[in-house]
Every structure is written in structure tokens, then in C-alpha cells.
Amino acid sequence: MDCFVVPPGGTSHNDKSGNHRSFHLNRRAGWELYQVMSYAAYLPILMQVLLAGVITTGVIALSHLVGQRAAGSKIKDAAYECGILSDGSTHTRFPVKFYVTAMLFILFDIEVVFLIPWTFVYRDFLAHHIAILSPMLFFLGMLVLGLFYEVRKGALEWEK
User: Fold this and answer.
1) What angle do helix axes 133-153 and 96-127 make, rounded to 10 degrees?
2) How is residue 28 annotated by DSSP?
3) Integer CA distances (angstroms), 116 to 119, 127, 135, 146, 147, in order
4) pLDDT digit string, tens, across residues 35-57
5) Which of 7, 43, 66, 140 is least enclosed, having the fewest CB within 10 Å?
């Protein structure tokens, strides 16, 4: 079953191989003939997700069934620090600044996930006269404003 959209006033047809193709009206702006994907095109992705789930479940189940069971005792479960008994709690609390710094790193690291694909398709978008620079500059501007906000609030100062 094919899933396709024909723009209002647009035309569509089947090519020689029987694939459905659709035209955009704006050919002067560089729009080309494009093939619309069918649901069958997503079958490899579905198979990969199912295979990953089966492998994950299988490894966890096999580990649970075949793995060794540890005989718990207070001496064997105690932390070993070069022959010296440990004092105090082994679960110390970390200051919030470590978590804030980690969250900021993740936030600003995720932007690379959006910037790298943009660099790959930039020329294609320019060839088709699609404005892609201004949305990306807006995205980067929001990130820079967020960074200035964090600096102003003192989230990056270790001495606090």
C-alpha cells in the first residue's frame, strides 16, 4: 500500500516500473520529480528493531539462567580497599553542580546531532532554492542565548 500526497493542483502518475511519482507545480524553483516511499520501505527498520529486541532479551535471559549465583555474606560483599577496612558510607552524595554540568554538557552536545546532518544537506537545499540558513541560525542563536543565561546564573562556576 503506497502512502503519497499530491499537492493541491499538482499532478501524479505511475512511471514505467509502476512506481507512483508525484510532481510539484513549482518546477522553476528547482523542485524535481520525487518518489514517495511506501510502507514496505520501512520493513528493514522494523526488522532491525525487532532483531535488537530479541537479541537483548535473549542475552539477559541467558545470563539469568546460566550465570553464577553469588553467595552473599557481609565479608564478601564489603568494599575492599587494599586490605584496609573502609570507614563511613560508601554512597557519598555529590553536589548538584556536578549534575548541572553534566546536563549542560548533554544539552550542548546534542546540538551536534542537529548540526552534522545540516552540513551534509546544505548544498542540496541551496540547489533547490530552499532557505535553510535562517532556521539554523535561529537554532544556534537560541543555544547561544541559553549559554549566556547559564553563565549569567553562575551554573558554570565551580567555586559556588
Assistant:
1) 170
2) T
3) 5, 19, 15, 20, 20
4) 455 777 788 999 999 999 999 99
5) 66
